[in-house]
Amino acid sequence: MATDVELDEYGDFMACANNIAQCYIKQNKLSEALDWLEECRCLHKCWGNSKKPSSLPWSVLLLPVQEFIILFIKMLMRQEHVFTELGNTSAAYAAVYNAFKYRNNFLADTNILKEEVNGTWENYVKMRHPDPQNVDGLKIVDPALQVRGVWKKVRVPSTTPCPPPRVGPTIAVYEGRLYMFGGEHETGKALMDGWVLDLHDMDGWHPIAGPPPRTPAI
């Protein structure tokens, strides 16, 4: 079991990262704010997985300790604020969705952050992401984090294998190829597969090795 000292230390580190992010937000330094919010998330994940390792490398174990729940939700709500400022409502929606889920799972019997989280969530569920009604009002506030452009629908040959539908995969683009790993199937089953799509040739999805299984700590 964790000692009170360990809990206090991790709580202090998370609170410090959250507060530094808030200072950068007030200075409109959004890139730096996101870095420190990610640091807060990583601190929480490292602590949780060190005590109860998850079988899925990308999953986050949320500690059932109110102090940690509150810090985690505050981190998510600050992410929502930053992504909203950047016009990225999809990422903002993901952040506030998790904040809403965790608050109502762990703090439902309290009023802690209830108005802020639930009110923001209600606004986002009424929108599309991106919402065409908001396009004209978008502004470039951080050129390093924003790209102007439009979505273009692409067609992938249906004769090749296709990855099953999923939510929450890990996605990256490298040297003109889009890689996708893992995630959760619509049935709730965890997926451990990997896929690649060449964005130049557009010759369809190809299966590749998925993420490795987590090995026990030595």
For the structure shown, list the relevant keywords.
218 residues; five-stranded antiparallel beta sheet; alpha+beta
Description:
This protein has 218 residues and is an alpha+beta fold. Strand 3 (177-185) and strand 4 (190-198) form a beta hairpin. Helix 2 (30-51) runs antiparallel to helix 3 (66-85). The model has no long low-confidence stretch (mean pLDDT 82). The two termini are 18 Å apart. It has helices spanning 4-26, 30-51, 66-85, 89-106, 114-124; strands at 166-167, 170-174, 177-185, 190-198, 205-208. Strands 1, 2, 3, 4 and 5 form a 5-stranded antiparallel beta sheet that branches. The protein is globular.
Topology of this protein?
Layout: H1 4-26, H2 30-51, H3 66-85, H4 89-106, H5 114-124, E1 166-167, E2 170-174, E3 177-185, E4 190-198, E5 205-208
Antiparallel strand pairs: 1-3, 2-3, 3-4, 4-5
Molecular shape: globular
Order of helices and strands: HHHHHEEEEE
List the uncertain runs: none
Oligomer: single chain
Distance between the termini: 18 Å
Q: How can the largest sheet be summarized?
A: 5 strands, antiparallel
Number of E strands: 5
Counting helices, strands and paired strands, the structural category is alpha+beta
Strand content is: 5-15%
Query: What's the pLDDT, averaged over the residues?
Result: 82
- Helix proportion: 40-55%
Number of discrete helical segments: 5
Report Rg.
19 Å
